[in-house]
């Protein structure tokens, strides 16, 4: 899905319903179109199909981790331009994932908003 409003399209890959609700709240306030997927196993297919401007990616997902998804996106020539904001606990952040930004959980929604704007402006 490509954003038709000129606003960036954001794919949320998060298995925790409460966190996903908070992320959707921020995206709605920014008027950024978004979609959510809760499964790491289905994330790559959705990323390939929709080619989002930004992926808000949980590092700890069932089936396939966000870290693995991040590495797969980075090695795919077609998806190399997809920006990733990896949300994970500080102890699970690994620079080899090549995410554009790491955001340690728990985080403030304002910090998330600021990081998303920076990543999309780059």
What does this structure look like?
Helices cover 39% and strands 19% of the residues. By secondary structure, it is of the alpha/beta class. The longest helix is centred in the first third of the chain and has 14 residues, at 17-30.
List the helices and strands and how they pair.
Elements: E1 10-13, H1 17-30, E2 34-37, H2 40-50, E3 54-58, H3 66-75, E4 83-88, E5 101-104, H4 109-121
Parallel strand pairs: 1-2, 1-3, 3-4, 4-5
Query: What percentage of the residues does DSSP assign to strands (E)?
Result: 15-25%
Helices and strands, in order, run as EHEHEHEEH
Please give the radius of gyration in angstroms.
13 Å
Strand tally: 5
Helix content: 25-40%
The average pLDDT score comes to 87
Task: Write a brief structural summary.
The chain has helices at residues 17-30, 40-50, 66-75, 109-121, and strands at residues 10-13, 34-37, 54-58, 83-88, 101-104. It is built from four helices and five strands; from the N terminus they run E-H-E-H-E-H-E-E-H.
Essential attributes:
4 helices; 5 strands; globular; alpha/beta; 122 residues; 5-stranded parallel β-sheet
